[in-house]
Amino acid sequence: MKFNKLSQLILVSFIGLVVASLLTACQLVTIDYIYVACSAGNGPGSAGQIYSYAVDSQSGALRVGQKTVSSGGTNPVALAVTANYYHLYAANQGNKSVVHFSIGLSGALTQKESVTLTDVPVALAVNSANTYLYVLSGSTSATLTEYPIDKLGVIGAPAATLSLTLPGNFAGDTIVPTAVTVLADSTAVYVAAYDQSAYNPGGATTSNANPGWVFGYTVGSGGALTALSGSPYQAGVKPSAIATDPVNRFVYVTDYASNELIGYTVMAKDTLNFMVNGPFKTGNQPTSLVVDPRGIYIYLSNSLDSSVSAYSISLQTGAPSTVVNATSSAGNGTDTQPVSIVVEPSLGRFVYTANHLGNSVSGFRLNPETGSLELTQATPYPTGTNPTALAAIPYGNHATQAVTP
């Protein structure tokens, strides 16, 4: 049987469409890059590394992104990115450094300058105006340092340095810092810390003060930091992580020792007030939390359970309510000991945890209608040794589509 020219043309066109459809269906589209702080080995002197992973738009699966780079020191513990996604900062406890990296259009990291601290860094945060980097440091004392950053992300000389102490009879207590965050409008900074003189498992205590605290500061002209009225605020026993919602209404803190999530309402002049009906139950030993870009869900990692807890936020009161998954469970299993959690910013559809003992990242697909989670394809994804921190940026055109409230 012979085909005429018209029939041959139709057949070739049909085959071309089929092939093109198959290729399109198999095409991987990157919407974000995830950065993971790890070590090169198990030894205390092992070099710090920052791994890069590309996020697939359809499945949320991670694949190796740009080349792994040195963190600029040893034992990296924290990462932070600017709100314009042009710069990343890494905190290294081994050499007490904070290192600046520029982020290329393809997600590649290029190391720039660094600053050396007098004590070990613990946590980092950058304000949404991209004008200040907040560094929390100390192991037996707590210091908050505010560094100005210019349009190129360069770290300047400190604009403010504060020692965190309790008032009155507890001024001499040992304060251990754990986390720092900034309100979305850049007007206030909040620090989580606990009083080791009052809470010291396995050791002696010398104080009857409340153990857990949140210190709050308003940011004034030239970056001047002034303690908020009523600060510090009580925060359970051992606060381990702190986050704010994207519209400056609520602050949330995890209590590692009490297995609780503590909520605060942001009042006039950025002061804090406990939420009604709190605190709220979590899994065992919560270590990290994040509010999704829309401001309607909270996700936190439970290190002892190796799980993620999900909550929906009441838009009226800020109170969190537990979200169950498709199996009617409140827990979402990860690899071993998740210590950091992030929601990718491009679509706000995928959640990832860094699993310290699993040497991996676990991924979840976020249901935007309910907030429930389900595992992404091929999770968990292998990383370097003992990952400690995550950061995420939208990629390419998706940088202009980042989810907002």
Name its key features:
Methylamine Dehydrogenase, Chain H; 405 residues; 1 helix; five-stranded antiparallel sheet; mainly beta
Task: Write a structural description.
- With 405 residues, this protein is mainly beta.
- The chain has one domain (33-400): YVTN repeat-like/Quinoprotein amine dehydrogenase (Methylamine Dehydrogenase, Chain H, 7 Propeller).
- It has 1 helix and 33 strands.
- It has one helix spanning 5-26, and strands at residues 30-39, 47-56, 62-64, 69-74, 76-81, 87-92, 97-103, 109-116, 121-126, 132-137, 143-148, 160-163, 175-182, 188-195, 212-219, 225-227, 233-234, 239-244, 250-255, 260-266, 272-274, 280-281, 286-291, 297-302, 307-313, 320-322, 331-333, 338-343, 350-355, 360-366, 373-375, 381-382, 385-394.
- Strands 1, 2, 3, 4 and 33 form a 5-stranded antiparallel beta sheet that branches.
- Strand 20 (260-266) and strand 21 form a beta hairpin.
Question: From the 3D coordinates, which CATH architecture would you assign?
Answer: 7 Propeller
Q: What is the alpha-carbon Rg in Å?
A: 23 Å
Please write the CATH class name: Mainly Beta
CATH homology group: YVTN repeat-like/Quinoprotein amine dehydrogenase
The fraction of residues in strands falls at over 45%
